[in-house]
Each structure stands twice: as structure tokens, then as C-alpha cells.
Amino acid sequence: MGISGLVITFNEEKNIGKCIDALFKVCDEVIIVDSFSKDRTVEIAKEKGAQVVQQAFLGDGPQRTHGLPFCKNDWILNLDADEFLDKDAEDFILKKKYLEGNYDAMSFRVKNFLADKLIDFSGWYPDHKVRFFNKQTAHPSDSKVHQKIVAQNEKKVAVHILHYGWDSLDQIIAKKNQYSGWHAQQLFDQGKRINAFKPVLNGTVAFVRCYFFKKGIFNGLDGLSIAMIQAFFSYMKYAKLIKLQKNK
Fold it and tell me: Comparing C-alpha atoms, which of 95, 94, 109, 86 is closest to residue 155?
């Protein structure tokens, strides 16, 4: 029983080579769905032996769904370009432990890194994500931001994905700002409407939860910074939603 690696990309020349090499440790094919990258992402992917499909970006969930028909296997390992399996996750897949029980999706723990520093506070660990699923009965949601896998019988497994998403706090802030806009538009399209107090309330709650209840306070300046970034994201998501409401 084979496994297909599936990755969506846009300007990922920094990571895509390492990502494909890692996927081929457990997969017999790798499918790249690329959003017309302007750098060497496609060239590197082809050099590494991946099949490349190009598609203008449809949103997080729909873009992943677009790649499924190109995967010959039922079991899909759907990592981002900056994600890699930890040794325990590799062993779990290579020893075919995912076939034990009637499960169609596996939720792994995610270790998030800022440069080479593990962020294991402010609610960032354990951060569970489903990146491994059987496409016969499970599939990505149609959410355009932070999609989830819709499955019939999901199992949480205590093995890990390594996520090297950011080199600096500036990158985290920029990404959170981008995501806040996408989230606001998604909420607006779903008919969500709020009052002017919502951004301040949610931003404050996010900070208190991350800094005090999720142990950011015990991690010095990094703990304070991450808590403030989470508060910024929560605030901006709803502030942008209010702006969309007013523009309508």
C-alpha cells in the first residue's frame, strides 16, 4: 500500500527541496500543486523527482483538494513546504501503524520553531494537525484559510511534525496580518456580523490566555512577544471584519 506526498507551494525555493527529500523517505510519489511561483520552486521540485501541477491559488482547502486526483494512492501525506516529519512520525508511517484500527485520518503533534528555537508555550504546543489521511473517506475542507481535514474516524497520535515556518518575529507578524485578512473575508462571506467591541475583547482574551494561562509569562521576552502577536491576530481579524461590514 503506497503513500502519496502532496504539497501546495508558492515561492518555496528555500524549503521545497528538503521537503521533497523528506517525503520520499515514506512516500512513493510526491505531487506539487504550485500557484505559479516566481522563483525556482518548480524547477527544484522537478529536479527532485516530484510531479508538478500548476494551478492559480484557490484557497488553502480547495488548492489541496485540487491535487487529490493526481495522487495514485489512497493514503495522502499532505505537508506544507516548511514542514517535515520527525523521526517518531517516520517510524509510525514506515511501520504501517496507521493501518491498526479503522481510522481514516491521523492528527500529529506539531513542533513550531522560530528560527531554531522551539515555541512550546503560549498554546503553540502541542498544536495538533491532520496531515495524513485516506482520500477515500477523508478530504480537505473548503475553507480558504487554515483548512481542516473532514474525516469519519480521526485518531490523535503522539508523534510529531517539525514546522520551521519563520526566521524572525517580523515574518510571524506579516503572516498573521495576511491570515487576519483572509479570515475576516471568510467570516464575512459566511454571514458573520459583529459589533465594535469584538476586536478589543477578543484581542484582550487572546493575550491573557496565551501569556498567563498558556505559560508565555515563564518564557521571557519571547513569551510576551508571542502572546502579543496572538492578540494582534485576533484583534485584526475582527477589526478587518468590521471594515468589510462598513464597506458593504
Answer: 109
